[in-house]
Amino acid sequence: MPPQLVYLDYAASAPLDPEVLEVMRPYLEAAGNPSSTHAAGRFLRSAVEEARQTIADLIGAAPGEIIFTSGGTEADNHTLRSAVETFSLSTILFNPTEHHAVLHTIEDLARQGKVRAIPIAIDSQGHIDLNHLEALLKEHPKSLVSIMYANNEIGTLQPVSEIAALCQQYGALYHCDTVQVMGLGWVRVDEWPVDFLAASAHKFYGPKGVGFLYRRRPIRSFITGGGQERGQRAGTENVAGIVGMAFALRKAYEKKDTYYQHLSMLKRHALELLRMQLPEAHINGDPSLEGSHPGILNFYLPPEKADDLLLIHLDIAGICASGTSACSSGSGHPSHVLQAIGLPAEAALRAIRLSWGWGTEKNHLDRAIQTLQQNLAAPIT
Ligand code: PLP
Description:
By secondary structure, this protein is of the alpha/beta class. 41% of the residues lie in helices and 12% in strands.
């Protein structure tokens, strides 16, 4: 990344930690295939299994419950599609603010006639309505429930322990997309009866293109081919990526308190800046620190105060931010998340998401808010 850029798009992807790159290097260079039985293969196989053990220990799982994938999208696809098939499920109850990796998969399963997909009601900050979930579970007890931990656009946290307990009570299976929170060190599946979860390394300073899923019970393979991952995910393992991901996750868990303090200090600062310098800003999602991701802030400015080119102003000033999730930006469509919490399309199109991490300093947020403020006063004509 050019050093002069201010990067405020960690929710889209965090930069690779240089220590992670060093740990990966020997495996990027190594010959061999982890499925080969000779010494070169065994060297890679033991690295993959050590990484699996590390990740399993960190999240309180058994190593055999971890399946490596090419990232969060594959982990979500794999879980939803394979769980529906393996357990002959006919209903999915879903949170309408899920990432497209979940939503489009559910839509596809519904289009093929494999499931009935029922949205769960949410409030104007994006929190699941637990009463509605329970009412749906009473009617459809053998469902698959898909509700993420933290929303990638607005940061709203869901009451995942209560959701998991409800699913358990009614015999439903619970899939949780934990992509945005895995790096906060909060996930322990031995303390939280979730059935499946999805994670992605590039959100916690690991490499892009690698992730994992956790499954409490075996599910069918999603990708067919060789017998890798105990027959549950064919394809030669991304050894360097897997090793880097395990190292990055261990670091995240070891430093979770310092990391949380840093992120939440920045969130308090960002909220204060908005209050002082952009009081017209409307915060999207849960604005409280307890109810939201400490590194994500989403807001919009009313049309009479700002044109819809604020993200371009930020870009020109060397500040990288997003208007929506990275997977949808550039599509020209208003965010489904913002619309689901009740924003009109024109407001949703003007939303700005700032997200930060280890490398962020207060002055980066100062620059971003100052740039926005300057461009309120003199909008491009
Ligand atoms: N789920 C959530 C909540 C995400 O934020 C993302 C990526 O932004 C994904 C899934 C997809 O993960 P990946 O980029 O690893 O495919």
